[in-house]
Amino acid sequence: MHQGRVVFGAIEEVVFGHPAAGAILAQMDRLKANRAFLMVSGTLNRQTDEIQKIAQALGARCAGLFDAMPAHTPREAVIAAANAARDVRADLIVTVGGGSITDGAKAVQLCLANDIDSTADIERIRVRKGVAPEMNAPTVRQVSVPTTIAGGEFSAIAGVTDRSTHVKQMLRHPLVVPRATILDPAITVHTPEWLFLSTGIRAVDHCVEAICSRETHPYADAQSVKGLAMLADALPRVKANPSDLDARMDAQIGTWLSMGALAAGVPMGASHGIGYVLGAAYDVPHGYTSCIMLPAVMRWNAPDNAERQMIVAAAMGFPGRDAADVLDAFIRSLGMPRSLSEMRVLPEHFEAIAEQAMRTPWVPRNPRKIDTPAQVREILLLAA
Q1: pLDDT mean values, one per 10 residues, the chain (384 residues)
Q2: Which helix (H) or strand (E) holds 171?
Q3: What's this model's pTM, rounded to 2 decimal places?
Q4: What is the β-pairing status of strands 142-146 and 180-183?
Q5: Residue 107 and residue 124: Cα distance in Å, rounded?
Q6: Which of 49, 70, 114, 140 is deepest in the core (most CB within 10 A)?
Q7: What does residue 152 show for φ and ψ, rounded to 5 degrees?
């Protein structure tokens, strides 16, 4: 008999297929917001007119703009953005960009609610040993327009990097999930191909690790299996024709579905856990960590969850095939990296990575039990 608990999060709407500027304005009307603080991609702001179009649509309701969030969401940039949002008395944060910006805005919400104005103060709100501390709930919430497809705009978790220790730390509160997410495929055409496709593999990773989890359930499976099938179909179409907005829309919806299991309480596994370390300590882009680690984790897990891995291969269109082989071929077909050495992560780094990965929230929840750093090193050697 299945047992479990599904908590429906605080996201209120997902709007898909409508132009971003008009959809943001409609959300501001719905939420009765008048002072939007835009947290946006610097590249999008400087090299396209997309941000200008949004600011013009908002007019006087655009209270300020921040476009300096680096990859992996460092604490320093979070504090800079929070101070800027506080200065303009923002009543809504609107993000237009990738996962680092989305996560940055989640962190800003908590900084505003808890009077955090220095990098050291972030210690007060970070998750420790899987537990979020008591804190004030955010009152200045978020609307997100993602330009990549890693899926953070559907979660109540933010990853923020402490540069002093090179560790990515988790912030979590039920109300940091955006009140609305706007999926506009047209705005993603400016995203570099490597970034769009690799974050698509991050979404594939969500689906696969959820399907393979020992803690999954039918509600989560329904979303993960459909999401994986949509991503497996859509990502090659985007690579073949970058202007195919239908393919981009399918990839975005597949990503939305990929986050359903996580939102419903199904944990991720070692691919996500090791990925946290590779991003924070070695500056490996978020999507690339999944491209490199997911097939290796699947090979290592196969003795314990071969039946669940069959579901993965079938969802990707290759019933009866080895799921790690299917994923490896799929990732290679998109032109993505497949080894740690390509990212200049070498065997002499593996001991430190393994030690740190054991302290992430996901490695202890891997379907094949990981008890020691030596087992993480076995996985890393498969990805070397």
Answers
A1: 87 97 98 98 97 98 98 96 98 97 98 98 94 97 98 95 92 97 98 98 98 96 98 98 98 98 94 95 94 98 98 98 98 98 97 96 96 98 98
A2: strand 167-172
A3: 0.96
A4: parallel
A5: 12
A6: 140
A7: -60, -20
